Amino acid sequence: MIDRELLDILACPVCKGNIRHDAPEDKLTCVSCGRRYPIRENIPIMLEEEAETPGNSGR
Ligand SMILES: [Zn+2]
């Protein structure tokens, strides 16, 4: 579970956009560029190289 205060201080490392919690998938989505960051052990992984890009479906 990611709390709202944490979301408020997080920003996308790529574009500095706001982050939204995507609850069904438990990922953090940048509202500006659409990158999705994983959450591991309740720690948001805010790294560009860990992010899924919008045009890159699956792996
Ligand atoms: Zn972004």
In short:
This protein is α+β, with helices and mostly antiparallel strands and 59 residues long.
What keyword list fits this structure?
four-stranded antiparallel sheet; N-terminal domain of TfIIb; alpha+beta; 59 residues; binds zinc ion; single chain; 1 helix; 10% helix
Task: Describe the model.
Strand 2 (27-30) and strand 3 (36-40) form a beta hairpin. This protein has one helix at 4-9; strands spanning 19-22, 27-30, 36-40, 43-44. The N and C termini lie far apart (25 Å). The protein has a 4-stranded antiparallel sheet, with no helix packed on it. The radius of gyration is 10 Å and the shape is globular. The protein is built from 1 helix and 4 strands; from the N terminus they run αββββ. It has one domain: N-terminal domain of TfIIb, CATH 2.20.25.10. The protein is α+β, with helices and mostly antiparallel strands. The protein is 10% helix and 25% strand. The model has no long low-confidence stretch (mean pLDDT 91). The chain binds zinc ion (ZN). Zinc ion binds at residues 12, 14-15, 17, 30, 32-33, 35.
